Amino acid sequence: MLETGIGSGNGAVYLHVGGCYMAGKRVKPVARDVAARAIAEGVEACSHCRPDTELGMLD
């Protein structure tokens, strides 16, 4: 899931695994390839659910 920032036009600020308890209210589900691209482009992975580990993309 991608979590976006506050306000219109703000991009993704965090990436979460589905069901993460730290995900905020501004999240939307995304496909695996979109999530992998987001991490590659610098979107921060949640330190609690570790979507980068789930995707096999360790730092």
Broad structural category? alpha+beta
Number of strands: 4
Question: What is the count of distinct domains?
Answer: 1
Specify the number of helices. Answer: 2
SSE arrangement, N to C: EEEHEH
The main sheet comes to:
4 strands, mixed
Distance between the termini: 19 Å
Overall mean confidence score, pLDDT: 88
Radius of gyration: 10 Å
Written account of the structure:
This protein has one domain. Helix content is 22%, strand content 19%. The protein contains two helices and four strands; from the N terminus they run βββαβα. It has helices at residues 32-40, 51-54; strands spanning 2-4, 12-15, 27-28, 44-45. It has a four-stranded mixed β-sheet, with helices on one face. A hairpin with a 7-residue loop joins β1 and β2.
Outline:
The chain has helices spanning 32-40, 51-54, and strands at residues 2-4, 12-15, 27-28, 44-45. With 59 residues, the protein is α+β, with helices and mostly antiparallel strands.
Features:
4 strands, 59 residues, 4-stranded mixed beta sheet, 22% helix
Furnish the topology, listing elements before pairings.
Layout: E1 2-4, E2 12-15, E3 27-28, H1 32-40, E4 44-45, H2 51-54
Parallel strand pairs: 2-4
Antiparallel strand pairs: 1-2, 1-3
